[in-house]
Records
---
Amino acid sequence: MSALASVTQQQAREAAESMPIEAIDPANPDYFVDDTVGHYFARLRRDDPVHRSVSPIFGPYWSVTRYQDIMSVDTNHTVFSSSWQLGGITLTDAPEGEKLQMFIAMDPPVHDEQRKAVAPIVAPPNLATMEGLIRERTCAVLDAVPRNETFNWVDKVSIELTTLMLATLFDFPLEDRRLLTWWSDVATMNKAINPNALEPHERMAELGKMLEYFTRLWNERVNASPKTDLVSMLAHGPSTRNMSPLEYMGNLVLLIVGGNDTTRNSMTGGLLALHEHPDQWAKLRANPSLIPSLVPEIIRWQTPLAHMRRTAMADIELAGKPIRKGDKVAMWYLSGNRDGSAIDDADRFIIDRARPRQHLSFGFGIHRCVGNRLAELQLRILWEEILQRFETIEVVGPPVRVRSTFVRGFSSLPVRIPG
Amino acid sequence: MPRVTFITFAGERHHVTVPPGTTLMRAATDHGVPGIDGDCGGQCACATCHCFVEMPWAAQLGARSAREDDMLNFVVEPRPNSRLGCQVELTDALDGIVVSLPEGQH
């Protein structure tokens, strides 16, 4: 870490420790750009684990910061709703008419029907059939990276690989695959935080173009025999074939976003973590059989989605605090993943932990990430192929982090591969 | 001390003996039996300890909780004798129990 970055961390640590507890508002985009939010979470976990803030961006909300409290909320879908009708699953309430109807933002029973329609494509037997193609594409991307010159890992590797994977899942025309990245970014951009984001109506117009494109694909496949790509499965599935255009759009966005920038940011985050922990890199090089526990540790460390939001449907007490019906509640996975009372040495990046999958990054309960094993598969293949090709990958400059309190990611990581 | 036989999807048998009170999930994960994951550590929150309890032992188990049912709802291949391993505690009365494992967990 550079001297300037160390100073920033030190100042944030001091601020987090000394400011009055009621003033702490972790949903501050600056904390995410600087990656200083962890200090505020540490203070809250210790002094006010279920904490009320009034955000200038998001209004009043509760922060849930400890692992076990997060688990309680995540598994209590009867009280804590994910429904888009109450504001959905991010701290930002989407304005009326802009709310995307996707099953991540639905409660049972409709959630259940739609999830079950999609789940088979990422179930173990299907993953086995995808592994060969994923490996082939990973090898091609890694073989094409520049050598002995600085390049942006995010663009040339992380985005490229996850976009290829998504195009495979949808059987999307390969030559247009960068549209998937664009739509994923459009879906998650937030004008309230990022001045460069599209205006809300522009955003919906772009998502409308996405809907047009996928409607064309739907029309091509609905009358053909059923195949194993996502569009065909939605077009043929009994509970999804009659969905409204807005629901189809919402589910597409869910699958594109859920399957795209999360994995992308774990691919970048893993490289950065190994760079920052050279002892772990050495351990990995000496023992590639550690890859299956490296992968979930990367996902814990990165926590690609920093929070998930719920809305209380009844009054309930949580860690002694009175949550009222209608209150917005943020489960900070990023905080729970550093909770030393639940995870041993939570503040350390350790690639051979005993229970590496016990992290919160995929959530728990009925909304637990349906693509979690596919994400792990992609990362496992990536690291298998990296270890076979590159003795070292030098990170030659600081990362640039995405300005978001939801997506924990990178727009750039400059690297250089000798050879 | 109850003995458990796990049968993997490929047909391999694994025999394990554990203290009473151990869950099926821990009986598998503590002894390296492949095919049960238990990502959440046993809190009925992930459904990656899905297993099929064979008869007659299936009939001797307590009923599934609502929470167990909610999670089992999403496994790829639910059967009438599906259980989440973390919700089944082994007792001497269940000695000899045979448990089959699904093709995968996710």
Note: The mean pLDDT of chain A is 92.
---
Amino acid sequence: MSYHFDWLPIWEHRDILISGFALTVAVSTAALVLAVILGTLLGTLATAQSRLLRLGAGTVVECTRNVPLLIHMYFWYIGLAFLRLPPFLCAVFGLAIYSAAYVGEIVRGGIDAVARGQSQAGLASGLTRGQTLRLVIYPQALRIVAPSLTGLFSQLIKDSSLASVITVPELSFAASAIDSDTFRTFEVYITISVLYIVVVTVTSNMVLLLPGAHRSQALLRVADA
Amino acid sequence: MKNHGWTRRLLSAALIATAAVATFAPTQAQENTIAKIKARGKLLAGVKFDTPPFGYLGDKNEPIGFDIDLIRKVAEHIGVPVELVSVTSTTRVPMLVSGNVDLTAASMTHTRERDKTIDFSITYYTGGQSLLVAKSSTITGLKDLDGKQVSVQQGTTLEKNIAATAPKAKIVAFKDYNSAWLALAQGRVDALTGSLNILQGFANGNPNFKIVGDLFSVEPFGIGVREGDSALRDEINFTLQDLWASGEYTQLYRKWFHADPTVPIEMWPK
């Protein structure tokens, strides 16, 4: 009555797994870059002096964050079907915009956490608003938000598995394809779980590459986790 | 020494995990499933909820279809009520193997590959693969599919057939029929391929779509049971043959396909 593990079929389908893994990395990386750009913009707007900008950013964040990721994917793939965007782009857009809302909240929190005197001092010393943000606020905020951002990045990588429903042949899609071909359900899902663990662990440890990270207890904790 | 303890702990954790995985995944049903079904008081049947007219949700959101009617007859034969469990093309074999259902009647083609993992009843329906396209489409058959996008269900014989017969078509694989159909309805893809009767199920009452081309495969459908579960397989086979002999099979066939059966059920003498 015991299940006999047979890993050979997984090895025979390694090409599908490898291309799926590469696509997972590609979708995640593209979405991550886009999410950070959009999220930084949103987070910065959310701390703007203009009430209208703050309200606008808040509305965008709430509307995006409170809709399931699956629906974001369907929106780009099925909702805007007439555009015939490639599934890869649909997945990147869905994932990036959804995650950008979270990045935005983290960035807003990070900027708020930098002492108000810092920005006042920057402005008083003759820097423009943009320079103050770039040279004084962002570098300090980055150190504060890095642990939360890292957590979000690993979430994003795992979320990329939802791209399989809009026919992007990433890792989960590959697993499903191999499963229905070989019926080695446990072997294939154990394999991709290990691959996800590897890629998420590597990503989590990348936070250590930040300058001065080895001195920050908070960052080391994230890398250890 | 300290290091040793750590390795041992890890090893035992791995063993426990493996054992846990192994226990809920029996590959073979050596015990009598019929007795188990009777003791449980119901038959667990894996059926499709998204594949008209074989198994789908009707107007009252109740699962109905040809497969489901046949399964109700099998349950009647055993003398228990049936509980319908939703499966998809990718989950129908794993759900059966893992013991979540006793059988699957999920418009499943009997292939040699699948027969290595599970057992099948006699053929209860013979289908053929076709193409569904938009009314305005210029596609008239397989030959027009070069460079076109064709949606299909992942993990089906349909997917393999279309890849073999239209190698230049771009195959877009979905997890369930509804998504594959939606992709065609929304114009994401140029054609949907599937069993003729299933495509008719989608096209019925939808004048914007048409079925084109000749059938390009033979799909003998079988009801799946766990490998070695001959007691349940006999029960299913005898039910199917009784239904054929009594004419009920033909009635059900007419009810769902609006035509007479073209392939008779294989009969065994008493």
Note: DSSP finds ten helices and 15 strands in chain B.
